[in-house]
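Schema walk-through. Below, the input block comes first and the output block second. Nothing else is stored per chain. Lengths vary across the set, and this one has 474 residues.
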Amino acid sequence: MGEILMVPALGRILLGLLLLASFLSALGSSSPSPDVRILSAERRVDLTSSIVKVYLTLKVENSGASHASDIFLAFSPTETEHLAIIKASLPEGKRKKKKYIPLDVNPTELSEAPNGAKLFSVSLINPLMAGATAVIEVLYILTHSLEPFPAEISQSESQLVYYRDSAVLLSPYHVVEQIMYIKTPTNKIESFTRVDPTNRAGTELKYGHFHDHPPYYSSPILIHFENNNPFAVVEELVREVEISHWGSLQVKEYYQLKHAGARHKGVFSRLEYQARPSINGASSFKQLLAKLPPRVNSVYYRDAIGNISSSHLRTDYQKSELEIEPRYPLFGGWKASFVIGYSVPLEDFLFESPEGQHYLNFSFGCPLYDTLVDSLTIKVVLPEGSKSPSAVLPFGADQYLEKTFSYLDVVGRTTVVIKKKNVVPEHNVPFQVYYNFNPIFMLAEPLMLITAIFLFFSACIAYLHMDLSLAKKA
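--- output ---
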């Protein structure tokens, strides 16, 4: 009897041990392993535009006895606030045969990270075994990270900005060796923090090599330099994409554009600007370039006053470029509102999946080159009668459905609304909207028109044959 009771008890103990082991394993995989260290780290910071791009190459080593499935990246609270996108990849091959295998990057919820650092986990395709090494390449982009100083400048002054960073990599691991390169748009650098060793050559600052820094170590630096590149920020962009199964795709984009650099002070002189624009207005911009789909037609560019004629469209079989010029040059703090609209053939963007669903394959993001979008809203208006809509994006965004009414609509058109903050040019990747549609609904509007015309002429005929006189004929 005792042996019979002993088996289930032993099973419960083994089950408990297995659950505990799996819990500890999951806990270990969600936090940085002390057995992992970074043998070398190279950072290249690009400050040549208003958007900061950082290219990071890490060589990591697992010196422990167990494998590591994730490598963690650390960002300061300020960097986390301005982080627009982060990508990681695993390089394979050499030189021209080099390939990059994308890796998943996800935020973690570790509350014990020092100084409020935020951690992101990079999931490796194959776990890093004991004693093994791997090279990981990371690209992350920071927005609103260049601070104009002075905050106000006159028309003839150049724009100077501050950039704050750490000379050493903020990392949850021990870093054996590291170096950082910072590239500025010009060689006019007013001042920069020196951390031995620091070297400067033209438009590039070099910090390092540094050796043997413990986890979460930082060394703040401040760089004050000239940057007259356009600080073009679209505060709000609303794009409406209307699908018509009769053969066209109508796109309309509403822009709220702002120059986010140092605010303009004093009086603007158009005479001086036109005489010497490179000196009297070096930090301003008066034109932008938009990349539109190929085979675009019926393009228009207008604002609240009407059509703006200062635009040029160049098209070929691969792309279309629209060069737009606002009615006035934009200086720091100035704004402009306008609308861009166009049509494209439906067969270039609407396809049918193997399951029989229709899906739209269109580009996300802003078509303006080197432009930051604070708030982007995309509305995909589906044909009336569409069912089961769903959007597929390669990154997170808010999604919901709403109804849109247009000409001759009865029940309204289902509209997929996608919203995202802090959008940069690297977000200009394809996304898909799937939906079910019965072609019989294409006959609804023509039948309504035929019925309305028939009823109208029937009413006219009936009216002409009606005798509405009060007196009877003799």
